[in-house]
Amino acid sequence: MCERVTNVSVKSHNVARCQKQEQTLISIADDCLLVANENILNVPLLCGWRRHVLKRIYYTCPCGKRFSNMKQIETFLININSRLSIEQFSFEIEIDVKTKPTNQMFVVKNDLSEGREMVKIPVIKTTNNIKLQQFEYITRPEINTNIVYSSLKNCCNCTDNCQNVSKCSCILRTFFESKLIHKSSKYSNGKYECKRLFSNSYSGIYECNESCHCNSKCKNRVAQNGIKFRLEVFETEKKGFGVRCVDDIPKGSFICTYTGKVLESEDPTETLLRDETYTFRINYVEHMIYLNNALEKDYLDKTEFIIDGFSKSNVGKFFNHSCDPNCKIQVVFINTHDFRLPDLALFAMKNIKAGSELTYNYNIEKDSDGKRLCECGTKKCKRIKLM
Question: Could you give the CA distance from residue 214 to residue 162 in angstroms, rounded to a whole number?
Answer without folding.
Answer: 7
